[in-house]
Amino acid sequence: MSVDLRDLLRARFAWTDPGGHTGYVVSNRSGWWRDPLILSGLGEALGDLFKEATPTVVVSPEVTGFLVGPLVARAIGAGFVEAYRAGARRPIAEPMTWAEVPSDHRGDQQHLGVREGLVGPEDRVLVVDDWVATGAQAAALRSLFPDAYVGTAVIVSECSPAVSISLDIRGLLTGQDLM
Ligand SMILES: O=P(O)(O)OC[C@H]1O[C@H](OP(=O)(O)OP(=O)(O)O)[C@H](O)[C@@H]1O
């Protein structure tokens, strides 16, 4: 992973004040996808975080994970499996396996599901996402593949050290890097 990519990620990121005296700012990550250098380097950089684990499949939660996950899968020669959020769309026709997501950074209860039969006993699953806050999505996905899970690779990891260690979450940037 080059220092340049980290610098670019920092440069293309912004915090937005949504207005209305909400008292908080929201992350604007669109600058990442708009930058061709970030888009071309991101998959390899995230894949390198777990090179020694030789993952065979990347699993990512919708919706931003559907953008980042395939970049990593392509870079490391793995396949990709979508993890859908319950209630976000029309019901999926195929049989699904669902995991309860512990209360996430918004305090919402969610369920993440994958189509049955896409991950086998020989697979090594790398979870990929853009951001980890509480680790709730990562924990839910690990619970779906307790034996195959090798860890979670993200662009920004701002969860506690204890959660990072327990779920083996590795990031390119910390929350502090974006302050
Ligand atoms: O560590 P956690 O507390 O589970 O939070 C991390 C999740 O938060 C963001 O998703 P968001 O809900 O903002 O949806 P998005 O995919 O539309 O960005 C991010 O993409 C992760 O999926």
From TrEMBL:
InterPro entries: Adenine_PRTase, PRTase-like, PRTase_dom. Pathway: Purine metabolism. Gene3D superfamilies: 3.40.50.2020. Homodimer. SUPFAM superfamilies: PRTase-like. The keyword Membrane does not apply. It is found in: Cytoplasm. This is Phosphoribosyltransferase.
